[in-house]
Specification:
heterodimer; A: Cathepsin D, subunit A, domain 1; 3 domains; elongated; B: Rossmann fold; 6-stranded mixed β-sheet; 10 strands; binds adenosine-5'-triphosphate; binds magnesium ion
Chain lengths: 429, 235
Amino acid sequence: MKTSDLLASAVANTFRSKLRTTLTVLALFIGAFTLTLTTAVGAGVTDYVTKQVASLGANDVFIISGGAQANPTDGPAEYDPETSTASDGTSAGPLAAGGALTEADLETLSATEGLTKVSPVRSVAFDYIQNGDGTKYEFTANPASSITKADLVAGEQLSSGSTENQVVLPSDYLEPLGYATGEDAVGQQVSLGLTDILGQKHTVDATVVGVAQTSLLASGAGINQALTNSAADLQMAGIQTLNPRYAIATARFDASLPAQDVSALKQKVVDEGFSVQTIQDQLGVITTVIAGIVGVLNAFAIIALLAASFGIVNTLLMSVQERTREIGLMKAMGMRSSRVFALFSLEATFIGFLGSALGALVAVLLGTALSAGLAAGPLAALPGLNILLFDPASIAGIIILIMAIAFVSGTLPARRAAKQNPIESLRYE
Amino acid sequence: MGSNLIIDAKNISKSYGSGANRFDALKDVSFQVAQGESVAIVGKSGSGKSTLMHLIALLDKPDSGALEVEGRDALRMKQRELSNFRNKKFGFVFQQFFLTPNTSVLDNVVLPLKISGIRRSERKRRGLQILANFELESKSAKKATTLSGGQKQRVVIARALINEPAVIFADEPTGNLDSATGGVVEDTLFALNKKNGITLVIVTHDEELAARCDRRVYLKDGEIVPSLSNKKVKA
Ligand SMILES: Nc1ncnc2c1ncn2[C@@H]1O[C@H](COP(=O)(O)OP(=O)(O)OP(=O)(O)O)[C@@H](O)[C@H]1O
Ligand SMILES: [Mg+2]
């Protein structure tokens, strides 16, 4: 029998016993439906977190703070007058850890082999942002924005090398500042107001280079190094402190280094008496939790599929039993055992295809509607979060996986059919 | 004898079961069929007629003895060769109709062609042609289950003929039919034998049908009854 005929026969046979096929397909459908949705949730949340991580900082950045490595499981570090430094405790958010850094510390870090571009994160407190003569709005800058990549909706990322004062606005500032769209805002001048340590009011002008999705983890607008420096200088009112202190510093390393070299480098910095973390360290917990939840959901789907595979075995065994004479006749007429085996395996695989393709299709249709509904309603506070992200490759993977499971389940009945003696089959009443 | 023998079975035996349940269905049977003749295998129910037919049609293997088909040792043929032989050289009409229900008459008739891997369009052409010969053209798209007994038997014969076989093995071809319809089926088979030179091996317990054959072989309890059988093969 030609393979194309074999395939057509397998498909036709599948539809001969409609109720039985439907029930088997239904079991596979549920498995495929669940797997498609759980993978989409996993992908959606992971994608969101990845974007958030990028908005927190680049993957070649260490965030270094003074004091011993704060290890959450070990409790507080013991005070040691030689190494411990005072921590002001005011720096909040994921970028804060340990004590303060001095100029000497920064020099030590700069001298450390493997670290480049060591720079302190200078925090600047702005009072407001204003577009021309418009209304003034409160304004917060993300101190780490010079090392971050914003999740842009318009424009470009901040340029760390530029001498121009640059700002990336969160998208919720657009309407209040009088910009209809993100594109309208890009290239515009805004004024930022601040008060120096002596109580004098100042303004700095800056160019909007980009508009970012409002972020869950990195709050505030992005400002580049040039703007940070000019604002910080204004804030100090020209007074040079003898001993400036910084909450944190950033340093770059070679992102292409293998993981163990990065760990060694981290250990070296820790040995010098600092705390050091990468962005991934800080978000590791979140991603682990997400992976755990998705894993549990997937386990349920796999259990459904396992049950479905027994359904396939049962369906096809019944089918082989029912078609004993037909199989015997085909073999009597010269159909080879290997082709009989192929016919039944193909039937199983086709049932697998039907169930998985339908399940995935319905999951995508329903999920897309659900995702849109959630984004407009309960999840509106998390812009940029697509709770269900359907990836064609993983959907194809799910379909192939289920077809493979169906094929394997089909081999038992198919072998039974292939082994049938034509004479015995033809005698079968 | 010689090269015109299409089937040459020597001293073949076949038993079913083992130990106390052992049953010798065929005992030391020698049987020849020459090209173009019609042979009837006659005997009471349970005498081993179907068993003999299955063995010489390469559907089963004898426990002992020798079997040559078209001068080749059938007992040494590989599975693939055996399948090929049955598919290309033999046509089968079994004791029951064995039509696939819920499948069209045409699809039932062209099954041997489908198995041998012939193109769909070619199958359809040959299937419709042979159905026309049996005045069943109008039924080609009907489900096989909707036909009358006589029509079914004609479909079965059409299916046996579609691959233009050298031999037709028919097990009780008229057993399920009334005498009038049975007569039509018999006429069809003998016409094929006379006109196209197709060899006929007919299993029957119907004396009248047996009498129409060139030769009769009588079986009793798995053995040939020499006094009743014309063992001599027509040259
Ligand atoms: N698979 C089997 N297992 C055990 N015994 C069998 C088997 N097949 C056939 N037999 C026995 O072998 C004997 C011959 O059977 P066979 O079918 O050849 O008879 P038959 O002459 O064709 O009879 P009928 O005219 O009723 O079709 C019978 O007694 C039958 O019970
Ligand atoms: Mg019989």
